[in-house]
Specification:
Blueprint: H1 3-27, E1 32-33, E2 36-37, H2 40-65
Antiparallel strand pairs: 1-2
């Protein structure tokens, strides 16, 4: 696997994670981990971070193509 393929794969995985957090936050789905209720704002933060990492990955992969 070359660097460009790796960046595309990582970007796609981060995009899926960002989409999952967006759906969770938009639909107000409750999540609890070992009895701890995960706050909704945490999904918004995770959406922004995962989305940014996905965007950076796609940008770097695009730059490698040139």
């Amino acid at each position: 696997m070359n660097q460009k393929s790796f960046m595309r794969l990582a970007a796609a995985i981060f995009a899926v994670v960002a989409l999952a957090h967006l759906v969770r936050a938009a639909m107000a789905l409750p999540i609890s981990i070992a009895g701890w209720i995960v706050p909704m704002w945490l999904s918004w933060v995770a959406f922004v971070i995962a989305g940014a990492l996905s965007w950076f990955g796609w940008s770097l992969a695009k730059r490698e193509a040139r």
